[in-house]
Every structure is written in structure tokens, then in C-alpha cells.
Amino acid sequence: MEQGTVLEMRGICKYFPGVRALEQVDFTLREGEIHALMGENGAGKSTLIKVLTGVYPKDAGAIYLAGVDGQVHIKSPQDAQNNGIATVYQEITLCPNLTVAENMYIGRTRSALTNWQKMNSDAGKLLDELGIPAHPKQQLGNCSIAVQQMVAIARAVDMECKVLILDEPTSSLDEQEVQKLFGLMRDLKKKGVGIIFVTHFLEQVYEVCDRITVLRDGQLVGEYIIEDLPRVQLVSKMLGKDFDDMADIKSDSDTDNIDYSSTPVYEAIGLTGTTGIKPFDFRIHKGEVNGFTGLLGSGRSESVRAIFGADRVTRGRVMIDGRPVKIRKPLDAMKHGISYLPEDRKRDGIVGDLSVRDNIILALQVMKGFFKPFSRAQAEQFADEYIKLLNIKTASSETPIKSLSGGNQQKVILARWLLANPVYLILDEPTRGIDVGTKVEIQKLVLKLAAEGKSVTFISSEIDEMIRTCSRLVVMRDGKVVGELKGEDLNQNKIMATIAGGES
Amino acid sequence: MTTPEPRLKTGRSGKRLLEKFGLTQLIIPFVALLFLVLLNLFVDPSFFKIALEKSSTGYYILSGNLISIIDNGSELAILAIGMTLVTSASGGQDISVGSAIAIAGSIVLRVIKGLSPSISGGELAVYLIFAFVLCVVASALFGAFNGSLVAFFKIQPMVATLILFTAGRSIAAWINNNENISITDDRFKYFGNFLPGIPVPTPVFISAVCMIVIALVLKFTNLRLYSQAVGINASSSRLNGINPKMIKLLSFIILGVCVAVCGFIKVSRTASITYAVIANNIEMDAILAVALGGNNLGGGKFNMTASIIGAYVIQFLTTTLFKLKVSSSAISAYKAVVVIFLIILSAPVVRKWLGDLKNKHIASRAKVKKEGV
User: Fold this and answer.
1) How far, in Å, are A31, B366, B368 from residue B372 at the CA level?
2) Residues 287 to 316 of A: which have CB under 8 A from any B CB?
């Protein structure tokens, strides 16, 4: 091992039933560098991380760590921790039913007895230092996802690690929180910690990283110094072809010919529920793509959940095509042609152990009824059709959905709701945690659906994505609709101003 | 985005791969069965003898250990059906089935006994149907009681069913004022023994009917898809229009019906009931059958056939131990040893470990290939 290297992985292989997740991958991390690990969905980033942290046993290859002679065998996440490898995963892997302090110290105390008082005060000090708005004795599950993520990072920071792995840490953080995190990363870098940073946000890579390793289809594409690799080249390396410019998405379709005077496909008046949103009015027309925007916790997800009947609706009138209807539960909404792709894919979207096929047909099957199952051949046909249509990477339609990569899981859920043939499709954060290529695909798909006459609500925390796809934006703040923007008002500055409440 | 999919040689056909997976689950109970068969062949081949003998009632009937296994295994197999569904949908088990069988049996005896003074000849059939329907309704209601605790009050199944587990035998005794009831009409015994002129025990037919019914239900409804989806991810199921509470409730009601059938067979076997002993510990065997079938006791995916075979394996084991002259007080301990072995074999961790071994083999081959190029 060279001087200054903290981690070396050589010839790593990992296989899953029918899928080659990693094939002879090398990775090197140097002291005091922030190293981006880039690649599309299913490129093998998460798998590589999980091999390094002992979640998956590797099928072949060797791992070397600074200060250790010979190979290191990492058998479990605990083992990885003991070797100075700390991880913050994309999905929160802490225990929501424990307190913040307990989560920070669980599995790390050496003595049999825990000094609770000291633990809580230590935790409090560290949280203050990092500026994390959480109380040590607060139950973690009651914190927002962003805070939970930061607690996970605080835990890693406190472990005095040599290697810190951040797997998509920023996907649920807002701009301010991201900056705070970057400050933290730079501090750690100065202390000589090697940081592996997995993200889909290109801007962030160029803001903090020193080096980039690109993976594609489970294989190593190459390792580059950041100055040597312009953005366009990075993307083309990740995709394995020339970059399909996002800027021309909008020109693909014509969204100006929506007839706003027609009867709305869906209209709600004074809709409110038990989740803390104020009564709001909302309408969407045929062929329209609209968006809900606002900061985390502004109530944008709660609003669309109320539309779909996912949470209990306490008041409000709903009209579909001008006819009053009652939507009390998801099935009511589905029968009226509304589809909803939920924000939290893992919790509300996928049915992990079931096959891709069962996951695709689920919604349509439920609409058809308990006593009318699809024949095997019919289900097979639906699944194959949508696997091809959305280019879902899976070994077969029988593969359990949980063994697919995040973006492909999302496509399966998308397929489920497209198969249900809705008139009004609600997509809550469909592009979260997935790669650039798939993001573009999904945005294009949304515009195609609108052009076919469907109505779509598209929610994303990336404002430029919303600007590209939506023709109208509903802006929310603190559970309240504070503005509606369309036409020329649809630009970054105006949206930011409305979200912040600084309208003139 | 049109890069060809990386696939392993072994995964050339995903369908075949899954069929292989489905088989692995069935292989465990089959291997156990094979083991028991070989053991008996080795110890005493006459274990497998089946004879056609004249019984005390004057008809020819089949006798032998194998017949006794499929006869006595009937109740367990029927229970395994319901238990599998409860496990799948609720992610827990019902430990009250033994007590519930006592209640079901007690109800049947109460009805028949109460009406027997007025029975003259052919009317028994009507009363039997009445007794059966009543015990099905009652058991289904008890199942619904358990199910509501689980579905609506979100109590863990084992805790929820602990109530009926504790109270069930008392309720059963109370139904008949704690009297020792026995039915003298021999025709009542047909359902737990032999129908006149038919050499195969009646419980075998009854369990076969139950299996056919559940097979048809699984084929012509979405019970499998719904209960698996609910067991794996209730939140997601709800957003797909499924009502997870109703599915959990339904699974407990189905188990209730299975319990009713078992209770009916049990009291028919002896035409009497001992409240404290009837179907004692059968809940543990039923849960074991589900586990032996390689099903995840935490809910989700299930294999009904494997559970049913698991039930017969347990019965086979019990009979084998009896034949090996293991004293009845020690039988549970012997059973436990065998069960530990089988459960470890069917544990997902072990199966994953075996799979990993295979993958490692493939990896080393791939490496050799790459270096060779």
C-alpha cells in the first residue's frame, strides 16, 4: 500500500441471483480527501459500500486498510466500525424508537453499564457543536428525516473514524443543511479523514470533492482527479454514451394548449385532513402538469396524500370531471382514476419480498377485485411489457423487487401506476435518490403522459426539475398554500422568493 | 440506457431460477420425510406394512403405520392451512387453536347430546349438520375475536391469542357444565374413524377436501397476493387499495373455520371429550409445521404445500418415535432434537449461506477466466 492511502479495495466481486453487481472493482481512498463515487442506478455504488461495511460478504477480492498488515476481513457492520469505517446510509438505518443520544452511542459503549447522564450530555454537546436542531432525549422517530440524517452523521463523526462513507446524505436535506454538512466534511478532511461521498447531485460533487471514481454496470470505468473531468464528460462516462442534454426536454412537448376554461379533471375545495395542513383549494386540467413545492415539512406531500385519501380527510369537497365524489381511502381514489407514487419508496411503495411482476400488477389487480385474479400469463404479459417500456433492469419478472437498485425499484412502482391507466397521476419525489439518466427518462415520461391527455402532479425538491416539467406550481409554506405560479413567473428567483415569503 | 443486463450463467433463465427456489423450500420437508423413511427402513422395514383387516364393526379396513400417520395427521394438516395464512398476513401465530378446538368439540357434543333423546334413525344427519354449522360459526367468531385484537388494536398475535389460549378450555368445560359427555350412537363416530364399507379413515377425506378447497381459493381469489403483500408491507398495501385490517381479520376467521373442522374430527374419534387434554399442544405442532415448510414466521411469502407436508412430517416423526418404543414422557425431548436439526436446515440464514458458497465458486471461476484472457 502506498504512503497516504487509508483504504484500498482490489478486484471486488459480488453476485446476486442472476445479477452481476460488482465485477473486479478497484477503489482507492487517500488520507484527507473527499472522493466521489459516481454511477447510474445499479452501477454498483451501494453494493460496493455494503461490501466495504460488511453488510454483504464479498464473493472475491481483497480489502486493505492503513495500519493493518495484509488483508482485512470485514464480516459485519460492527467489524467495520471497529476498523474505523463509519457509514451514513441513504436510507436512515437508525432506530426510530430510541432517543437521539441512544442512537448516537448504541453498540459503541465498551463497559457493560451505561452512564446515561454522561451519554446525554456528550450527545448534547456534539449536537450543539454541529448545529443539529435535536434534543438528546428526543425520540429519533419524531425528528424530521433531515435531522435523523444529521444525527446519523453526528454518530459517525463521534466515532473518530478513518474512513467516513456518506451514501446519498444530501438527498433529503435543504440547501442550508447541505452547506452545514459540507462545512463538516471539510473540517473532517483537514483532520485527515478519508471521505467517500456517494451522490447524484453533480453540483455537489464539483463543490466538495477532490477525486471521482466512476462505476458502470458493476464495473470500474476509472478514477479521475476532479479538475481533469469536466461535468459533461463525467455524465457521459456514467451513462456510457454522449450526454442527452436536459435543456431540450421542454421543447419536446407543447404544454401551452391546456384549456383552463374546461371542467377540471380533479377539483378540491377546502380540503384538509389530520396531518396539519390548512384547508386548500386545488384543481388540475386535462393534459396539465402541475407541481407542489415548498421546503421540507411545508405540507406538499401531505396535500397530495389528502388528494389520494392516503391520510384521513376531515373536510372538503372533491369533484372529478365536475361530479362530486367522496374519497375516503386509497381505493376510492384509484377507482376514480387517480394514481399516487409515494414519497417514501421503501416504506410506502415497494412490497420487498414480492416479485417485480407482482409489484407491477398490484394496483390494477386490487382495482379489478379480490375474486378476479389475473391469469399467470396475463400478469406475465403486463410485467414484461412494462419492464421493456420503462427499461427496468432486472434479471427477470420473478426477481424480488428488493434486490433491484433504487432507481429500478422506482421504475417498477411507476410501472404499477401506469398500468392502472390513471387519468390523474400524482408523483411525489419520483426522482429522489436516482441517477441522472433515469431522472431525465422520468421527466420525459411525465411530459409524454401529459401530451397524451393525462393530468400529472409532479413533486421534486429540485426546483429546476419542476421548472422544466411543470406548467403551474403550487407553493406551500407551513402547511398552507401561499402562492400559485405559472408562465413567466416560473423561474428560480420567483419560486425561491415565494417559498421564502419575500414577495414584493 | 440500453446497456445489456449483466447476468450470471446460472441465472440464464430467471423463471427456472425461481422454480428452483420454490423447490428448495419444498425440499426441506421432503428431505426430512426421506430421512424418517430411511430410518424406519433401516430399523424395521415392517413399519411400512399396510394390511386389509376385518375390524370389530365387521368391515374391511386398512391398517398400518402409514395409514395411522395420514389419519392422525389430518387435524394438524388442516390447522397448518389456517396457521400459514395467519402467519403470512399478520406476521405472528395463533397459540389458541388447541383451546379453540376444545370449544368447537364441546359445542358439537352439546348439540348432539342435547338433541339425542329425540334422535330416531335418519334424523341424525340433520342434527350433525346443525351441530357442525354451529361449531363453524362459533369458531369463526372466536377467530374474528382474535383477528380484531390483532388487526384493529394492533396487539401482537401471540399476546392477543394468549387470552383464548388461557380461557378456551374453561369455556369448553362450561359449555357442557364440565360433564363428561359421550355419545352412544355409533354413527357419530364415522367422521373420526371409518365410514361403513370404506377402508380409508374418514379424516383423510376431510383433510383432502380442506386442501382442495384452499387450493381453489388460492387459485380463484387474490388471497395469496393480498396476504403476502400485507405481511410484507402493510403501509404500501394500503396505498395500493388493500385493506390490511380486513385481510388480517380474514386470515384469523379462516383459521377459525379450520379449527371447527378439527374439533369436529377430534370429538368424533372418541365420541367424547376431555377438556384439559383434547388437542393438547397442537398449536405448537401447527406452528412447527409452518416453520418446517420453510415459511418465514415473520410473515409475507408462504408456500402452502410445504406447510401441509410439514404437518405430516411431524406426525410421521411422532409415530416413528412411538414405534421405536420411546417412552411417551421422553417423546417430546426426542422430537425437539430432530426439530432443531430441521429448523436450522430450513433457516433463511443457512439457505443464504449455501447460496453464498455457490456464488463464491462462480466468482473464482470468473476470476480465472478473466486472468486467462
Assistant:
1) 35, 10, 6
2) 308, 310
Give the one of A60, A351, A371 whose C-beta lies nearest to B232's C-beta: A351
Residue B75 lies in a domain: yes
Distance CA A331, CA B240 (A): 7
* A396–B17 C-beta distance less than 8 A: yes
Q: Which domain holds residue B157?
A: 57-325
Question: Is residue B372 one of the residues assigned to a domain?
Answer: no
Write out pLDDT tens, residues A262-292.
889 999 999 988 887 889 999 999 989 999 9
The fold of A245-337+422-504 is: Rossmann fold (3.40.50)
CB contact under 8 A, A396 and B229: no
The ranges assigned to domains in chain A are: 5-244, 245-337+422-504, 349-421
Phi and psi at residue A267, to the nearest 5°:
-140, 135
B148 part of a folded domain: yes
Q: How far is CA A255 from CA A260, A450, A490, in A?
A: 12, 8, 14
Mean pLDDT value across chain A: 85
Q: Which CATH superfamily is domain A5-244 in?
A: P-loop containing nucleotide triphosphate hydrolases (3.40.50.300)
- Least confidently predicted of A158-172, B19-33, B189-203, B250-264: B19-33
Question: Are A5-244 and A245-337+422-504 the same fold in CATH?
Answer: yes
Closest partner residue to A20 (CB to CB) among B7, B229, B232 is: B7
> Is residue B6 assigned to a domain?
no
Q: How confident is the model at residue A296 (pLDDT cuts 50, 70, 90)?
A: low
CATH label of the domain that carries residue B90: 1.10.3470
Chain B residues with beta carbon closer than 8 angstroms to that of A57: 356
The Cα–Cα gap between A160 and A470 comes to: 45
Size of interface A-B (CB pairs under 8 A): 146
Confidence of residue A308 (pLDDT cuts 50, 70, 90): very high
CB within 8 Å of chain B, chain A residues 226-265: 239-240
- Our CA-based measurement puts residue B252 at a distance from the nearest CA of chain A, in whole angstroms, of 17
Q: For the CA atoms of A486, A489, A493, A495, what is the dihedral angle to 10 degrees?
A: -30
